[in-house]
Amino acid sequence: MEMSTVEQTEQTEMSTNPEPENKKENKKGLRGTPAQATTRLLLHLWNLGGSKQEVKRKDLSDTVKLNNERSGDYTDIFKTLETDGTIKKTKKARIEYVFLTEQGLEVLDAGIKSADFEFDGSLVRAKDVKAVLNWIRERSSVAKVVDPGADAEKTGENAIASYETFESVVLEVYDKLNQDYNLDDLVPIYRIRREIGDSVSRSQFNEWLLEMQAKDILQLQGGSLPDSDPSQIEDSITTELSGLRCYAKRL
Q1: Rounded mean pLDDT of the chain?
Q2: Does one domain contain both 59 and 132?
């Protein structure tokens, strides 16, 4: 099997840079746990724009690896993420590219929220901190679209009380999800419902979303969801005439 440029580089690194003996301060290998390294890798892939376009694997490896780590230390992580569908890999002119899938974004979000996630205590790089801050700001901007008073006490004043407000919020959330997750103008309804959250009741959400379809603002489409998760199906919309509608398309 022909080896890619990245794989050849990783193999060369490991063969020409043997681990020094009796020098703990220069110990090579993956820093932290595999779970922490996985989250860092996904975080930097996202920060390099990997949820919107393909990123060279070499560029990602150079960004994510810490002091005394080698690109080859991440080979198994890349393979696992590709197998799980967290990332997609392509090859052009023997150069490997990786792309962060929608599932990968969810894995990244869970990884950052995990109590086990932390950076190596002896070295926290500026680019690591910047990537985390960018992620927090990005997630906060979506939350503010849905709940502009999220920092205030929950008094119920942020509930969506009219169809006009609902329409405005849904379109903003739709555009945000479509752009950030590269959804190709087909946004899962369950994602919209979950972003809006408790600002509107489930029945009111269904009624107003169907009204947006009746006004030719959105088209609700069927189809299957990638994971066929029962909770995702439940958070979609089912009508007597059309059956299950899983996706929204802006007209």
Answers
A1: 81
A2: yes
